[in-house]
TrEMBL record:
It comes from Erpornis zantholeuca. The lineage of its organism: Eukaryota, Metazoa, Chordata, Craniata, Vertebrata. One of its GO terms (molecular function) is DNA-binding transcription repressor activity, RNA polymerase II-specific. PANTHER family: ADIPOCYTE ENHANCER-BINDING PROTEIN 1 (PTHR11532:SF48), PROTEASE M14 CARBOXYPEPTIDASE (PTHR11532). Pfam families: CarboxypepD_reg, Peptidase_M14. Residues 1-262 form the Peptidase M14 domain. It comes from the Eukaryota. InterPro entries: CarboxyPept-like_regulatory, Peptidase_M14, Peptidase_M14_domain. Keywords: Glycoprotein. GO terms for biological process: peptide metabolic process; protein processing. Signal peptide: none annotated. This is AEBP1 protein.
Length: 381
């Protein structure tokens, strides 16, 4: 935060462009109570572990709704996407009840995500030196379609990996951070506490490395438009003050590069023919089975790798619009706006509702209609 403010005031063109063109939200600590407890205990002899949980005893990173298992169960029953969405999956009702085992911090973060149309996010952690991306949940090897989704068996040494539809985008985002880090991709020394799990790249899918259900990364991807990753800044989870300057130098360029990736892909506004913005319109990218929605102002952002994409915008009561959007290698999202025309189906539904939703009589060829039937048919048509 100090760096961004100082460099902005000093006229650094890179920082000025980033701050001017990007809404940056910073949360110093998701678990301030736990951090205070760990700070008082000190970092020696692993006392930092005292701050892993909240005062109520919750591990925040595993306290979010497990929407991935619900999605996979719906896929097995062939309910996606007509009866079960592939994006913006609603939070289960039992999870929102007052007596649910949910931390107050978790509830606050979920409300914060629903309030702001985030597009890219990262939660910063320690104890390792790598970037982890979704899915963090391991898919059950033999799901039962008729039964409720059960949590995966994480004792299995080889859990089944399920890649997200945005797997290639997540890999790029992870590589953009790891490659700009001064030492993260130098995996020839091995991992911090064990052998290297990143295939010498400094990045790993969460389910392959440390499978867990209910992570913030999976929840963010399936409930919002936001692509979220976990960034483990260094091996020491609680570095001494004398080491902070070097840790900052290790991560400074990576943090800037990662934030700049928000401007890669496509962006635009969805409006009607009168120029009014359409909120909650669905943006569908061909070949990627995960959609996003427009914000209250009809605007959207969709991070994509370079290439040519067939993109469509859809909204209730409007005819869909389709166009081809090109994403270039340079930073700078491609503008792809959509203008939707009103659909006749909305008016048809209104007319049907006025007539009690009674179906129009089907005309049987060869059978003459009575004058009364002909008049009734003309009135309904």
């Amino acid at each position: 935060m100090q760096f961004l403010c100082k460099e902005y005031q000093d006229g650094n063109p890179r920082v000025r462009g980033l701050v001017t063109d990007t809404r940056i939200h910073l949360v110093p600590s998701l678990n301030p109570d736990g951090y205070e407890l760990a700070h008082e205990a000190g970092s020696e002899l692993g006392n930092w572990a005292l701050g892993h949980w909240t005062e109520e005893g919750f591990d925040l990173f595993e306290n979010f709704p497990d929407l991935a298992s619900a999605l996979w169960a719906a896929e097995e029953r062939r309910l996606v996407p007509h009866q079960f969405p592939n994006h913006h999956i609603p939070i289960p009702e039992h999870y929102l009840s007052e007596d649910a085992a949910v931390a107050v911090e978790t509830r606050a973060v979920m409300a914060w995500m629903d309030k702001n149309p985030f597009v890219l996010g990262a939660n910063l952690q320690g104890g390792e030196k790598l970037v982890s991306f979704p899915f963090d949940t391991a898919r059950p090897s033999s799901p039962t379609p008729a039964a409720a989704p059960c949590p995966p068996d994480y004792e299995d040494e080889h859990p089944e990996l399920q890649e997200t539809p945005d797997h290639a985008v997540f890999r790029w985002l992870a590589i953009s951070y790891a490659s700009a880090h001064l030492t993260m991709s130098e995996t020839f020394r091995g991992g911090c506490h064990a052998q290297d799990v990143t295939d010498a790249m400094g990045i790993v899918q969460g389910a392959k490395w440390h499978p867990r259900a209910g992570s913030m990364n999976d929840f963010s991807y399936l409930h919002t438009n936001c692509l979220e990753l976990s960034i483990y800044l260094g091996c020491d989870k609680f570095p001494h003050e004398s080491e902070l300057q070097q840790e900052w130098e290790n991560n400074k360029e990576s943090l800037l590069t990662f934030m700049e990736q928000i401007h890669r892909g496509i962006k635009g506004v969805v409006t009607d023919q009168q120029g009014e913005p359409i909120a909650n319109a669905t943006i569908v990218v061909g070949g990627i089975n995960h959609n996003v929605r427009t914000a209250s102002g009809g605007d959207y952002w969709r991070i994509l790798n370079p290439g040519e994409y067939r993109v469509s915008a859809r909204a209730e009561g409007y005819n869909p619009s389709v166009k081809t959007c090109h994403v270039l290698y340079d930073i700078g999202a491609t503008q792809c706006n959509f203008v939707l025309s009103r659909s006749n189906w909305k008016r048809i539904r209104e007319i049907m509702a006025m007539n009690g939703n009674r179906p129009i009589r089907r005309v049987v060829p060869g059978r003459p209609m009575t004058p009364r039937e002909r008049l009734r048919l003309r009135m309904r048509l």
